[in-house]
């Protein structure tokens, strides 16, 4: 399964939302989100992953440098956990968590797997399991079609 294919599926689902009723948008935004996470999972192993991890590593070091060493690392992983939590919340059914996810958050699924890998402890493990399962499910589904 190609990183480009999963990213294209995500953008195609977001593009189709312009022409569909809100009940279909509910499904399309989740397909797009899971597709971007699937692309993030695929990309995490290649050069895209190295680029994302390098950039996030630089960002975390920068935050650590700008604040004290004791607070910087905690701030960085709290931000990573917050973005992952927002993404998970945006993918939940509307009746559970009514939130219309912005495009940046859905497309942010590309870096969510790399962000989650930096969150320590049980919270990081839970986010990693949940997000990996979501991405792998769509990779499997799109792989079956193509």
Give a brief rundown of this model:
This protein is mainly α. Helix content is 79%, strand content 0%. The protein has helices at residues 3-16, 22-43, 47-66, 69-91, 103-107, 112-117, 121-145.
Features:
mainly alpha, 79% helix, 146 residues, globular
- Strand fraction equals under 5%
Structural class by SSE content: mainly alpha
Number of DSSP-assigned strands: 0
Task: Tell me the span between the first and last alpha carbons.
Answer: 9 Å
The helix/strand order is HHHHHHH
Report mean pLDDT, rounded to a whole number. 79
* Largest beta-sheet characterization: none
Radius of gyration: 16 Å
Shape: globular
**Low-confidence blocks of residues:** none
Specify the helix fraction band.
Answer: over 70%
Describe the structure in your own words.
There is one protein chain. The longest helix has 25 residues. The protein has 146 residues and is mostly helical. It starts with a helix and ends with a helix. It is 79% helix and 0% strand.
